[in-house]
Amino acid sequence: MIYLESIGISKYLVEHAPILVVNNAETARSLLTTFVAGLISIMVFSFSLVMILLNQASSNFSPRLLPGLISNRRHQIILGIYNSTLLYCIFTLVSITPQGDKYQMPGFSVLLGIVFMTLSLGSFIYFIHSISQEIQVNTIMDKIFKKSKVRLEKLIEAEKHIDIDFEDTSNWKSVMANSTGYMQDVSLKSLADLAEEQHLKIEIVPIKGAYILKGIPILKYKGDSDEDLEKKLAEAITFSNSELIEDNYVLAFKQITEIALKAMSPGINDPGTCINCIDYLTELFALRMTKKDKSYYFSEDETALIFINTVSFEQLLYNVMASLRTYCKHDIVIVQKLFLMLQYLLQNSNVLNENYSKVVVKEIKNLEKDASDNHKNEADIIVIQSCVKRLQQVNSSEYEI
């Protein structure tokens, strides 16, 4: 705009479209000064709102949610609009320079400053609306659920439904971690290319998302030993200091469970949120049941080149249920909801995978024992017994409840 003003765009517009040009130096200075002061105030207020959101999410829900909230792309774009408009107004204000008795007026640039300020005000209104939505627990859980669902569906789609017995890897050579951090991602394509080129078979030892300490084995391979080869194998694994649901769906189960536990703490005491969490967990577990416990990477001729260790359905369900049983067993309403979740999973496991039925039945027995031990009221005991009886009726697996 400074360049366009130097070749006379404002002068041209004054002659042909005067309504588009602010042609008074004092008016222009007043407008731009007001815009600069107003934008600084808006930016400070917006930043304060973000801090309140992060503080409330951390104290009421879980500190694990903060990375997802901080990386909200819409809020970053809005703060960018504020910053760019502020800088534009400052540079336009500086470009109003005296020439003899008059000022060189960047009239059209001032008009654009008004347009950008209007855009900033619209962005601010949207920001207020967006931040009020982001702070709601249902919105937070829905975002976590959608991200993990996309990740799970991608893994299920990529899974080849071939049952194989991979070799025993206990005597294979190990590749050690040369740094510390969360195992964020694995370049399976690079590993597969190396495996085919060097005639190797590979096992990825840690579960994705696990915290890896320097010097522990991250890969095992069967084939000729070579330092350069081991270095290339180690480079296929990416480490990070943070965890993302987009890379590891198990984190979604952890986060939703933590929100449920925080909701049931004496300081918050919000069983309604806990029930919503169980609804989301039910759908995620049902989706997880369509995935196999063992994962492999196959070559084009259907040969299993890489064995990938994953969190088993049994371990995942136990970890979630152990936490929920510990902190929610005193609330009969939550206990009923957990029985309903296990009933739905049992019905699905009867259709999808008989092996998962055993896991679900085991958790039903654990929940029944904890609930019975913690409820002395006869009405509550009748409710627990009726839930168990209903589960026995829908159970068509070989495992008895």
The count of DSSP E runs of length 2 or more, i.e. the number of strands, is 10
Q: What is the H/E string?
A: HHHHHEEHHEEHEEEHEHHEEHHHH
- Quaternary structure: single chain
Number of domains: 3
Average pLDDT score: 84
Number of helix segments? 15
Beta-sheet strand percentage? Answer: 5-15%
Radius of gyration equals 30 Å
> In what order do the strands lie side by side in the largest sheet?
3-7-5-10-9
Please, could you describe this protein's structure?
- Helix content is 63%, strand content 10%.
- The protein has 401 residues and is an alpha+beta fold.
Which properties best describe this structure?
401 residues; alpha+beta; Aldehyde Oxidoreductase, domain 3; 3 domains; 15 helices; flat; transmembrane; membrane; transmembrane helix
Produce a short descriptive summary:
The protein is of the alpha+beta class and 401 residues long. The protein has helices spanning 2-6, 9-16, 25-60, 66-70, 73-94, 107-134, 137-158, 188-198, 227-235, 250-263, 271-288, 313-328, 332-352, 354-374, 378-394, and strands at 97-99, 102-104, 173-176, 181-186, 201-204, 211-212, 217-222, 237-240, 295-298, 304-308.
